[in-house]
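My main concern about presentation is that the manuscript never shows what a single data entry looks like. Each protein is reduced to its one-letter sequence and a matching series of backbone shape codes. For the editor and my fellow referees, an illustration may be useful. For illustration, here is how one protein appears when written out as sequence plus structure tokens:
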Amino acid sequence: MHRDLSFKWFFPHSPAAVWECLTEQEAIAEWLMKNDFKPVVGHKFNFHTKPIPKMDFDGIIYCEVLEVVPMQRLVYTWKGGPMPGVITLDTVLTWTLVAKENGTELRLEHSGFKGFKNYLSSLFMGAGWNGKIRKRLETLLNEKANATT
């Protein structure tokens, strides 16, 4: 069993504004999770959230930056499991920004969900990405735009 997630969203904000929200630690913490991210290929970082023991998840997402093309593409691993050193979810997250008239198209691909348990995880994560997480990103972009006007 294998599943990949793919979403395409439009934000009426510049690629630079969207890129900032995807790559600055403080901004990422506001719309996604607490982190120690740096947009540098090879940088290993973590996201921190509430553990879900029933899903064998310790609350830490272990990541490594694989690709950075400023204001166009950001790729990093997204791994998790029940404890440090035990990885049961091994996926890749790809953000692609496309400048459009009056804004930015943001594509999110979260690929590599393998096996039944990870298939179930992908259902929950897909609903989150396309629901509350997208909304929090949109809210942050709007707040930043309003603060500069």
Notes: The chain has three helices and seven strands.
